[in-house]
Amino acid sequence: MRCRGRRHFIKVAAGTPLLASVKTHAAPSTHPLPDESMQKLGFSNYPFSDGAYEHIVYVKGTGPDVIVMHELPGFDTYTVGFIDRLSGKGFRVHAPHLYGPMLWEASFPNFVRLCISREFGRLKANESAPVCDWLRALARSISDDNANARIGVIGMCLTGAFVIPMVIEPSVRAGIISQPAIPLSMRYWLFGSGAGEWMQQVNVSDEDFHAATQRCARDKVPVIVQRFKCDRISFHGRVKRIAQAFGENATLHEYPDSRPMENDRDFPHALLTREYDLAEYNDANEAENSTRVAFARVVAFLKQNLSPQSV
Fold first, then answer.
1. With helix as H, strand as E and coil as C, how does the chain read?
2. Closest Cα partner for 128 from 182, 196, 67?
3. For residue 175, which of 217, 224, 214 has the smallest C-alpha distance?
4. pLDDT for 187 beyond 60
5. Domains of the chain by residue range
6. Residue 64: closest CA among 47, 87, 38
7. Residues 50, 118, 241, 289, CA torsion sign
8. What pLDDT shows up at residue 307?
9. Which residues pair with 177 in a beta bridge?
10. Is the Cβ–Cβ distance between 280 and 218 less than 8 Å?
11. Following CA atoms 27, 28, 31, 32 in sequence, which dihedral angle do they give, to the nearest 10 degrees?
12. 211-258 residue pLDDT tens
C-alpha cells in the first residue's frame, strides 16, 4: 500500500510551517522490531547496533554485498521494487530501515521528524549526521563477516550524500550518489525561487568530504554521481561540486526526463525507484528510458568493482 506520497507532501507543505509547531518528538524504540510483511516479500532481516543506534536491516539476494539506503519517503514499495531488481541481477542487498513506516510513503512527516533528529544531524548543511557512523559500522561488519568482502553503497535523495562519509571505510569499494537532496528548500521546491549557495552544499562535514576524496584517490575507489537534469531538489551545482571533488574517480550522469510532466512541480527525482516504476515506455524504447539506462549503469558498475577479481 502507498499513501499519497510526494504530491500530497507538496500540497500540505505549501500551507504548513514545518517546524514552528514541533517542539518535541518521541524517541525511537531502543530495540526496533522487524516488519513481518517483509518476510512474505522474500526478505530476511537482522538487527544491527553500533552502540549508539540500532536499526533493522533487510536482506535479499545472493552475490556481492551492496548497502541500499532508502529515500525521504521511507522504505516504501518503490524501494522494495528497486531492491528486487538489484538482487535479481546477482547482488545481496542489505537495506536498513532508517525511518518512517514500512511500505508507505511518508515524506512530510519524515521530513519534519528528521529536521529535529540528532541521529540525522537535523538535516543541516556541512554536517555529517551520526547515522553515517552507524552506516560505516554496518559496512565494516558486513565485510568482516564475509571474508573482508568488497562492499558497494547506494544513497538516494536524503541519503544520497551519506555515501561520501561511507567511502572513507576501507571495505567500501564502490559508491553511488543518486540525486543528493539535502539541504532542501521548500521555497525553491514549490515555487522555484530562492536560489543560492545552499544549492551546492551537502549534509556532510568538510572534514569527512576531504577524507572521502583523499581515500578514493589513494585507493582508486570509483563513485557515480547522478540526477535528472530538471530535478528541483537535487541540483546541478551540487552534483557538479561532488563530482569535481572526487576528480577522476567520479563519473557524473545527468539524465533527461523519463516521462511527461503534468506541471512544473511534477519534476522527476527518484531515478532508481519511483521514476523507474512510473516511466512511460514501450518495447521499442524501453532500453533508452533514462531510468533503464541508469539502472543498467549501476548494475555494470557494481559488478565491475565488487567482484573478487577487481583490483
1. CCCCHHHHHHHHHHCCCCCCCCCCCCCCCCCCCCCHHHHHCCCEEEEEECCCCEEEEEEECCCCEEEEECECCECCHHHHHHHHHHHHCCCEEEEECCCCCCCCCCHHHHHHHHCCCCCCHHHCCCCCCCHHHHHHHHHHHHHHHCCCCCEEEEEEHHHHHHHHHHCCCCCEEEEEEECCCCCCCHHHHHHCCCCCHHHHCCCCCHHHHHHHHHHHHHHCCCEEEEEECCCCCCCHHHHHHHHHHHHHHEEEEEECCCCCCCCCCCCCCCCCCHHHHHCCCCCCCHHHCHHHHHHHHHHHHHHHHHCCCCC
2. 182
3. 224
4. yes
5. 5-306
6. 87
7. positive
8. 85
9. 155, 225
10. no
11. 170
12. 999 999 999 999 999 999 989 899 999 999 999 999 999 999 999 986
Q: What is the DSSP letter of 234?
A: S
Read off the amino acid at residue 93.
Answer: V
Matching residue, cell 572521502: 212
Residue 147: C-alpha distances to residues 219, 290, 296, 308 (Å): 19, 36, 28, 11
Residue 281 has pLDDT above 80, yes or no: no
Structure-block grid coordinates of residue 95: 537495506
Structure-block grid coordinates of residue 151? 562492499
Tell me the one-letter amino acid at 219: D
The radius of gyration of the chain's CA atoms, rounded to the nearest angstrom, is 18
User: Locate cell 574517480: which residue?
Assistant: 249
Q: CA 11 from chain center: how many Å?
A: 24
Q: In this structure, what C-alpha cell is assigned to residue 1?
A: 500500500
Look-up of cell digits 522555484: 192
Which is more confident, 264 or 112? 112
| Local structure of 69: helix, strand or coil | strand
Measured between alpha carbons, how far is 200 from 198 in angstroms, rounded to an integer? 5
CATH number of this structure's domain 5-306: 3.40.50.1820
pLDDT at 264: 57
What SS3 state is found at 58? strand
- 56-104: pLDDT as tens digits: 999 999 999 999 999 999 999 999 999 999 999 999 999 999 999 999 9
